Amino acid sequence: MEIGTLFLKSNLTGIITFSELDWITTHQSNFPRLEESVAIKLSRMLDAGTINIGCRLKS
């Protein structure tokens, strides 16, 4: 998984899953500066209510 892909998917659907959040917290110590800024942007979007924690159903 890549943080950029996760950001785009979350931004498109408005949802981030618990497993994706877990992946971010597990790997955040290995992120370079650019990926850190994307993770911070995701957290701000969560705080603002732009994206929500949930699950994606396959259609």
Please sum up the structure shown.
This protein is mainly alpha-helical and 59 residues long. Helix content is 63%, strand content 7%.
Oligomer: single chain
Count of helices? 3
Strand order of the largest sheet: 1-2
Reported for the largest beta sheet, the result is:
2 strands, parallel
Q: Based on CA inertia axes, which overall geometry fits?
A: globular
**DSSP strand count:** 2
Order of helices and strands: HEHHE
**Residue-averaged pLDDT, rounded?**
92
Measured distance between first and last alpha carbons:
21 Å
**Count of individual domains:** 1
Unreliable parts? none
Helix percent band: 55-70%
> Approximately what portion of the residues adopt beta-strand conformation?
5-15%
Structural class of the secondary structure composition?
mainly alpha
Integer-rounded radius of gyration: 11 Å
Characterize the structure shown.
It is built from three helices and two strands; from the N terminus they run αβααβ. The longest helix has 16 residues, at 33-48. Helices cover 63% and strands 7% of the residues. Helix 1 runs parallel beside helix 3 (33-48). The chain has one domain (3-53). The protein is mostly helical and 59 residues long. It is globular, with a radius of gyration of 11 Å. The protein starts with a helix and ends in a 6-residue tail after the last strand.
Question: Secondary-structure blueprint of this entry?
Answer:
Elements: H1 3-13, E1 15-16, H2 18-27, H3 33-48, E2 52-53
Parallel strand pairs: 1-2
Helix pairs in contact: 1-3
What structural keywords apply?
59 residues; mainly alpha; two-stranded parallel ribbon; 2 strands; globular
